[in-house]
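Operator note (shift B, R.M.): manual run for Serine acetyltransferase requested after the automated queue skipped it. Running by hand, logging everything below so the morning shift can see what happened. Input copied straight from the record, untouched. If output looks odd, do not overwrite the archive copy; leave it for review.
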Amino acid sequence: MTRGEHTYAPERVGVLARFREDIAVAKSKDPASAGTLTMALTYPGLQAIWAHRLIHRLWHGSTPRLLVRLAAYLVRMVTGIEIHPGARIGRRFFIDHGMGVVIGETAEIGDDVMLYHAVTLGGRSMDRVKRHPTLGDQVTVGAGARILGPVIIGARAQVGANAVVVHDVPPGTVAVGIPARAVSPQEVEPALMYYI
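Run finished. Output pasted below as returned.
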């Protein structure tokens, strides 16, 4: 993936089909997953992404921006997850636990991405430009990680727990440390990858 190339490509998928897809992904990625109804009612990551999909459509429609921002604010109050209405998020996105996740306005997230709790996809500029990260397909971001600025996290890359990423991460590598550096997956202890 090169700078300026976007992975986000919204597809027309029915609401019920997307709901089932999200539940299936959550069940596959969470070993503590429960029944469908329990997950729908008690998984803030699922609730936040479902609400975001509606809010994102409203953001790009004729609904007054203040009302859209208020809806996003209410979702943040209920779930503990803050997703700006302008953020672009692909399919089969899963946030595990979710508390403290922040996703900025110009963030772009590909398909099959997973975030753990307390992740920030933030900006480093006050200018009204592309100022938030782009995550490629199949990226996993560990708990407490901070990805800042218009950096690109390549497809299948992983960002370790509590890493601070301010530079691009090549596809298929692992970013660890403060500031983060890219290493091969074999150099990282798997048990310490996502949780601290």
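Quick read of the result: The domain at 15-192 is CATH 2.160.10.10 (UDP N-Acetylglucosamine Acyltransferase; domain 1). The CA atoms of residues 97 and 117 lie 6 Å apart.
Leaving this for review. - R.M.
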